[in-house]
């Protein structure tokens, strides 16, 4: 019935908001700049005109206290969606999320529900630097009671955000800014995709490339490079950190025997470690080689493009790791950046964020 | 503690007024040059332009000694330059070069110049406030004769860290001057939907901090308020908060104007441009025969040359070498003395 409809990731987020606001009068969206003319990089643009300023709200720059306010209203029966333009500002709400939101259902014996959704946006590029670009998803995933998801496609951007709003648990949705411009098929109307379960984006038999968020895109690019060299990679988009689906990865490794896991964050104490540990525990015999993790070096984000270009791993790094894992001595030539630096998602971008 | 008040007597000396004028002019011309060159896409970092807000740092800094310390937030170029920090270091930092004041690691949002007493800036709104208070606490504990000035915007007073730090500064009578540049907007969100109808300076009193308020675009007024606050801090009479009404002319982040977005009216912008801290002061000083066309021209020439040199320095400097990526994650052990 519905035709194939291609929209961008950021438009899909906006649709999720609009649809959730339409279908449930208890939903509201709040955050510094949510009703502003630029609307959180387009994701909330114009919603205030459609749904009014008592459901699409600005707020004081009080990240900590306002998260508690949202939690309180969630407990009182509303379904708040709070938006942080950068993860780094959401850090101010850690106490409320970790001690309160995560635990109210559990510590009151299931009598309290906090259907709270928090969007946190990961910045990257144009010198976002140490305090505007952090990928802190593992922090939240370590806390039982919070659900942490990372949609990597336009379809999931809408489907997982709508699912998060409908879920009775607090859900944190991490969005990577470099996904905002990607396109994909997204159904109109209510579109809900599961908050759990990894997804095979590409089938292959030689090596498993598992990834989170934007790194699933880099994994797909790496798979293309590898295909040219005769290596057939399977790409798995992990989609969520908690609950995490390692079964899909283990099943894939049973077939390929080789595993690379890529995340937008540091590898140390991060989600890649969780995936590798699970595969080792559940599928050790299948591994032909030690698994490889791809992530940020254990270093804060440098601002200068000269160092930021070295900081972020890319498809070519993943492809080269896969070659090595496959004992394949073919080489892949790197292509020079289209712009002087690799710190923008596409050449049309002329800064600043 | 006194209630917020506006102090109304005294003017800076003729020499001080010339220095204040020159200081504001210098910040203005630096910002204009950044705007002019930003489109060349070589300053690849978020950059918050302070045009329209030059009077606050000029009027405050003129009372400060080199060893006095300044902390700031994201819109810090004026605070940094007026404290006497290195222009070359700042421009090279915006260009991401190894000669930058933070060696390219921080960019415009993380300026520093320890030799000038500019201790750092960070864009998480209130986060440097408590850090500055900590430095003031140590100054008091160790008997160091110094004053700590902490600049922030109206939005920062909505974060808990501001209140917690002000409370601690108040109860311990710390040598701190909080300077709140109230420019009415947090990114695009107007003050009136973020805070009740009150003066930010009124928040100070209940924290044991003296609250002062004034016209942030009148550098003489800033100078007067800052004199009182800094003297109090220096003499052990405790902290003050100065709320300064001012206005940002450019977009929140970046070199452009943003009237097209419609969140600020053209009338409001025109009103504030009319109150330009620099043009207003120039007019007054010329009328009072303290400033001549010849001096204005001389200042322009001197500053233009300094700016040219700073940009040449930045653009001819090298980028940090790859090994610098992980150089500063942890400090190396100091040699034992």
Annotated CATH topology of the largest domain in chain A: Rossmann fold
Rg result of chain A: 20 Å
Q: Tell me about the biggest sheet of chain B?
A: 6 strands, parallel
Number of helical stretches of at least 4 residues of chain B? 11
Description:
The complex is a heterodimer of chains A (353) and B (337). Chain A is an alpha/beta fold. Chain A has two domains: 7-185, Thiamin diphosphate (ThDP)-binding fold, Pyr/PP domains (Rossmann fold, 3-Layer(aba) Sandwich), CATH 3.40.50; 199-325, Rossmann fold (3-Layer(aba) Sandwich). Helix content of chain A is 35%, strand content 18%. Chain A has helices at 9-23, 47-51, 63-75, 87-90, 94-101, 104-107, 137-141, 154-166, 214-228, 247-256, 271-283, 305-311, 315-325; strands at 6-8, 27-30, 56-57, 79-84, 117-122, 147-149, 171-176, 183-185, 199-202, 207-211, 233-237, 240-242, 259-266, 292-296. In chain A, the strands form three sheets. Chain A has a seven-stranded mixed sheet with strand order 3-2-4-5-7-6-12, with helices on both faces. In chain A, strands 9-11-10-13-14 form a five-stranded mixed sheet, with helices on both faces. In chain A, strands 1-8 form a two-stranded antiparallel ribbon. With 337 residues, chain B is of the alpha/beta class. Chain B has one domain (14-316): Rossmann fold (3-Layer(aba) Sandwich), CATH 3.40.50. Chain B contains eleven helices and eight strands. In chain B, α1 packs across α2 and α1 packs antiparallel against α10. The longest helix of chain B is centred in the first third of the chain and has 25 residues, at 14-38. Chain B is globular. The model of chain B is unreliable at 1-6 (pLDDT under 50). Classes of the chains: A alpha/beta (353), B alpha/beta (337). Chain A binds chain B through residues 32-33, 36-38, 58-65, 88-89, 91-92, 126-132, 297-300, 302-307, 310-311, 339-341, 343, 350-353, and chain B through 38-39, 41, 44-47, 96-97, 100, 102, 104-110, 122-125, 155-156, 158-160, 186-189, 193-195, 253-254, 261-263, 319-320, 322, 324-326, 329.
